[in-house]
Amino acid sequence: MENYGAVIAVGIAAGLINRWLLLRSDYRHYPTYPHGQLVHLALGFIAASLGAVAVPAIAKPDFVAVTFLVLAAQQFREVRNMERETLMKLEESKLVSRGTDYIEGIARVFEARNYLVIMTALLTSGAAQLWGVKAAFIISPVSIMLTLRLMSGSFIGDIAEVKKGLVHFEGSLLMVDDVVIMNVGLPQTRKKIMDEGLGVIIKPVDDNARLNLDAPGQRKAIIHDVVSILGSKVDINETELMPLARKQVDKGYLAFFIVANEPDLEMLIEIVKRVPVLESTRGTTLLSYYGRKAAD
After folding, report:
1. Backbone phi, then psi, for 179, in 5-degree steps?
2. How many C-beta atoms surround the C-beta of residue 289 within 10 A?
3. Is 16 exposed, middle or buried (0-12, 13-18, 19+ CB in 10 A)?
4. How would DSSP label each residue in 121-183?
5. Would you tell me the crossing angle of helices 34-59 and 100-131 to the nearest 10 degrees?
6. In whole angstroms, what is the distance from residue 215 CA to residue 102 CA?
7. C-alpha distances in angstroms, 192 versus 36, 179, 219, 276?
8. Is the N-terminal amide bond of 263 cis, ω within 30° of 0?
9. pTM assigned to the model
10. What is the pLDDT tens value at each position of the chain, 296 positions in all?
11. In the chain, which residue ranges form alpha helices assigned H by DSSP?
12. Number of CB atoms found within 10 A of residue 238's CB
């Protein structure tokens, strides 16, 4: 097919639609404002253009044009750095932080999404070049669904059981079931916690999941997501109401405590289940021979 303009146009359109569908602006992810979204859609357009132009460049042939894909890889690595720096700056003003592991995961995802856009544009323009524009309208939705599938990860609910925990005191020690959370000195604070505090127990399904929950970064992600939705009554320098996730050191499960603005226990359990498992904390103990033997 010699109509390179149509080939490039359908590739760019498919890539841009894909980037728009991959743009998440919920309680977990940045960007959440129009200017941030515009930046990423513009980068998505550039990525789609690179992928769409590659096929006609090879068909012409003009192999020099293909080298722009190599330059694109370098530029999209800068996208990760941009997101990391932005989120780290925002972190300084947060009462409940995301944590560096969560930030690195978000930055890595933004870089990966641009590569997926290139792949969609490349496949779509390739189909248009080989079989015509009509074929592109078949390949494009398939490619987009594939990229959406590739971007879906696992959640805490996939690796752990989340259930209600009993918030109580033993002397001045705040506990959720049998896990010590912290020491609370003021009687009025203890009363407030007993009246409004919520607690859940997060039990890993295997040793891989236990390693996930052991990681401080994964615990911060759980706390951040819950606070983002339910809110928290913690204030600056008021540590006694700080939401915390502590480990039962002998049995390996977590206890999570919060005094929320919206004290809904059922929603708290569902939110914890929907917290993403961070790539940097992913455990693979049971994939090794010694890990399997130790778990027996």
Report:
1. -105, 125
2. 7
3. buried
4. HHHHHHHHHHH-HHHHHHHHHHHHHHHHHHT---BHHHHEEEEE--EEEETTEEEETTEEEEE
5. 40
6. 11
7. 39, 19, 24, 31
8. no
9. 0.81
10. 457 788 888 999 999 998 888 876 555 555 666 667 788 888 888 888 888 888 888 777 766 666 766 777 777 777 788 778 888 887 777 777 888 888 888 888 888 888 889 889 989 998 888 888 888 888 889 998 988 887 777 889 988 999 999 999 988 899 999 999 998 888 888 899 899 999 999 999 888 888 888 888 899 999 998 998 898 888 777 778 889 999 988 888 999 999 988 888 999 999 999 998 888 777 666 566 555 555 55
11. 4-22, 34-59, 63-66, 68-91, 100-131, 133-150, 156-159, 187-196, 207-214, 216-230, 265-273, 289-295
12. 11
| Lateral strand order in the sheet of 244-247 | 160-164, 197-204, 254-259, 244-247
Q: What span, in angstroms and rounded, lies between the C-alpha atoms of 259 and 241?
A: 6
By CB atoms closer than 10 A (0-12, 13-18, 19+), residue 147 is: buried
- Cα–Cα distance measured from residue 121 to residue 7, given in angstroms and rounded to the nearest whole number: 10
Nearest to 106 by CA among 36, 189, 157, 49: 36
Domain boundaries, the chain: 4-152, 157-284
How far apart, in whole angstroms, are the C-alpha atoms of residue 288 and residue 290?
6
3-state secondary structure of 16: helix
Cα–Cα nearest to 47, from 67, 13, 72? 72
Q: What is the C-alpha to C-alpha distance for residues 216 and 28, in angstroms, rounded to an integer?
A: 18
